[in-house]
Amino acid sequence: MPHISFSEIKYWNKCPFYHKLVYVDKLKGFEGNEHTAFGSAIHSTCEKLLVENNFEPLGYFKEQFLEELLKVPNRENFNRKLISDMKGQGESLLPDILEATKEYFGEYEVSSVEEKLFEPIKEFLQEEYNFKGYIDIVFKTKDGKYHIVDWKTCSWGWDARRRSDPMTTYQLTLYKHFFALKNNIDPKNIETHFALLKRTAKQNKIEFFKVTSGPIKTENALKLSLKALYNIHSKNYPKNRLSCRNCEFYKTEHCP
Questions:
Q1: Whole-angstrom Cα distance, residue 186 to residue 176?
Q2: Strands, DSSP E only, in the chain?
Q3: Is the whole-model pTM more than 0.90?
Q4: Structural domains of the chain sorted by starting position, each given as residue range(s) with its CATH number in brackets
């Protein structure tokens, strides 16, 4: 079944031609670095810590971090000092996770971890397409509400612009929409949150904050998705030259 993910939508919005190179031509784009390895390792550790009893997070985090680093090509370009710093930063984050979660949500239960979404995009009529995604973790609180949370690693935090950026927050908006459809839950009973895991912060190292995802925002996120799907389906891949500067294909044989 043809499908699209939020990452695809984001890349298409960045540059339709970049989307073509990566998703149609199957060229290797960005393949990870020290930051993505750290993010994957701490992300996995957070989830296990919140689900498993008698879990020892530090050893697991170190093992996962090493595994993720070994997956990255071009490891000769690694910053060894950064990796060493990240090991200590991850270790300092782990003790705060459970306490920060309880302080933010109060009494809660973990409803699901890495919940897969593969739901039909009914508004797209040209072809059957599904929206594909994985929700990091879903909490259910005493008031019966579901809380979709996406873990994000960062250095010191996010500024106001990043917190309200549509192409950042639409991820949660779409997750909420399709989670509601999948589980037949009233969207009014679903809330969305980012959880910032701050490597270099001196305090408030784990920060949850709510992202509003009401009907108007959901409509706008779906419109962007449909626009992307229409152009992908029509094989319309213009270049967005405003995105060239930081593109790995810039001035290569693939995008002269």
A1: 10
A2: 3-5, 108-120, 130-141, 146-154, 190-198, 206-211
A3: yes
A4: 3-243 (3.90.320.10)
